[in-house]
Amino acid sequence: MTNAFKPLEREPAYLKVFKAIEARITDGSLKDGAFLPTEGELCDQFGVTRSTVREGLRLLEQTGLIVRGPAKKFYIRRPDSADIAAAASKSFALGGVTFREVWDTLASFYPAAAKLAATRLSDDDIAQLKAVRAALEAAGAKDHEATVAGAVEFFQHIARGLDNRVMLALLQSLNLMIGESLRHVIAGAPQAKDRISSAQEKLIEAFEAGDEVRAGEWMAKHIDDLKRGYDVAGVDLNEKI
Amino acid sequence: MTNAFKPLEREPAYLKVFKAIEARITDGSLKDGAFLPTEGELCDQFGVTRSTVREGLRLLEQTGLIVRGPAKKFYIRRPDSADIAAAASKSFALGGVTFREVWDTLASFYPAAAKLAATRLSDDDIAQLKAVRAALEAAGAKDHEATVAGAVEFFQHIARGLDNRVMLALLQSLNLMIGESLRHVIAGAPQAKDRISSAQEKLIEAFEAGDEVRAGEWMAKHIDDLKRGYDVAGVDLNEKI
DNA sequence: GATTTTCGTATTGTCGGACAACCGGAATTT
DNA sequence: AAATTCCGGTTGTCCGACAATACGAAAATC
Prior knowledge:
Oligomer: homodimer
Low-confidence stretches of chain A: none
Largest interface: A-B, 49 and 49 residues
CATH architecture of the largest domain in chain A: Up-down Bundle
Number of domains of chain A: 2
Structural class of chain A: mainly alpha
Order of helices and strands of chain A: HHHEEHHHHHHH
Largest sheet of chain A: 2 strands, antiparallel
Shape of chain A: elongated
Strand content of chain A: under 5%
Number of strands of chain A: 2
Strand order of the largest sheet of chain A: 1-2
Radius of gyration of chain A: 23 Å
CATH topology of the largest domain in chain A: Four Helix Bundle (Hemerythrin (Met), subunit A)
């Protein structure tokens, strides 16, 4: 019997609202920065009640497609890499990934990123890296927070300098995760600051020289070094983040 | 004047509902698979109306923390890598990233992943890779869909075999994005299937031998080859996905 | 005339109640 | 025992309402 009726999926109205608005954002008819109509107007346009519209708006909100502007009105915003990264790392945390998984990923991906960085970082990017390193040097040896911040910021600037939003988002979500775990490591590893700083120095040199191979090698060493800090600090790599 | 009052953030009740439930999921007091109370019960417990509760539920729903079960009831589910990947790649699409960005990322990250795969894939994983390749071989030369599917599935299995959820999610979101773009390339590149298949063969050999270096090299070649297909197909790499 | 104050209005956040549609399971029939 | 019917619980949607807030314009002040 071929003339059976289709499953007839009924889709809740709030989902339709969500998809309708989402579609108009993706196809560009609602441009970035434009204000969304008020809830009341949306009710009229969609022919549903405010409760329903509001449920749809909550979906858009969580997706990151709209944010609250002045006067509480919503406006359109395409999610940027930072949002993607934040959402991803949050999900990871919920999923209970281990330190080992994060570090393994770092060790695999960042050397490759460093290679690319050697060919792609601008003079300005490199200057910023130097600034980050200088700030790290200036910080007190016992200032663990500054050490963590310096290490993470260095990664951040490299990711940003790659001029690639996909890579940026992926690396940023890693950066968010290592920030937390580095804190544990550094407090328990005495000369962490010096080792980090000297690795950064070598990396900057490689970037300046445009030396891909050296950049990749030093990044690998740098990360390996950070990871080794776990043993020193006595942290179990299989612990959940 | 230092004693000014701070902005005094008042957060909407629906956000509190969201955070409250989210917290109980993350801290484990609501376990994976458990059913959420009904909307009515939540109203009683939180002391708010259903409209409010429902807005909170929509947030949880979009975050991927809860899904609908039988009888429409919600149950708890920790987002897995596929969800993270899907969400991320969707956001990327909205952000209007270019093919070039995706391919650059592929070219940077996948060779590193292949190296790891050489040391980590189980015999079972490799058997599956062989199966994927066999299916690709069996497909007709003109069956572009099968070719795309074969190429993407090969990537998928590698990612899954790495035994690392973070890497899996990141690579999966890349896989989702290349699927679409590969379709364009392959239709316009005659011997794409053969080249893909032979690259897969070399990769499998390297994986079996546990030869990291060779695996990385062939993966780099493989991706480079796919990318070159763009020229042949006449696709502009700077086009948005 | 420029600045401050006041005030009205639009919008959001929340409420309470209402009803149809739907699902699952119990009660009933066959 | 199997199929059918029925019923209560739950969701999806609607309506109407109100307080709180934020904005912009009108009014008052200097």
